[in-house]
Design the sequence.
């Protein structure tokens, strides 16, 4: 069961949008997480400083909120760990061959009305819908 949290979702989405706008305004860069992360993998990019700060904020801010508020984020998955690893590798291959991820295409590319990003995001969404249908209704998963 998924808990629907419209106000928290609106607030979180607004912060993601603000971060994307600020990164474009101050650095002229798209806020695609995989592109940002790739600059931190050797050989390091010449602009690794802002990349490290962006990722530290993306990981550190939620950790800080949890630490300060005492609110815990429950997470459990009925999916066995090996399947999660396989799924992560498939997503990684898709990111590589799709030249970007959902944050780059879905958030930033769609905002710029990029035809390539619109097609990529539609592909993400259709693939997700098909995967959920197959797993839940044909294979009989959760």
Sequence:
């Amino acid at each position: 069961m998924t808990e629907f949290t419209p106000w928290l979702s609106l607030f979180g989405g607004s912060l993601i949008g603000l971060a994307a706008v600020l990164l474009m305004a101050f650095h002229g860069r798209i806020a695609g997480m995989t592109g940002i992360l790739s600059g931190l993998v050797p050989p390091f990019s010449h602009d690794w400083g802002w990349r490290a700060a962006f990722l530290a904020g993306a990981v550190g801010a939620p950790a800080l909120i949890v630490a300060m508020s005492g609110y815990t984020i429950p997470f459990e998955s009925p999916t066995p760990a090996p399947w999660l690893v396989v799924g992560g590798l498939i997503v990684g291959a898709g990111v590589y061959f799709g030249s970007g991820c959902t944050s780059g295409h879905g958030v930033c590319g769609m905002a710029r009305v990029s035809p390539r990003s619109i097609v990529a995001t539609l592909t993400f969404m259709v693939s997700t819908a098909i995967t959920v249908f197959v797993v839940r209704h044909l294979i009989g998963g959760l």
Notes: The chain has two domains: 1-75, 77-142. The radius of gyration is 17 Å. Residues 115-139 form the longest helix (25 residues). The chain has six helices and no strands.
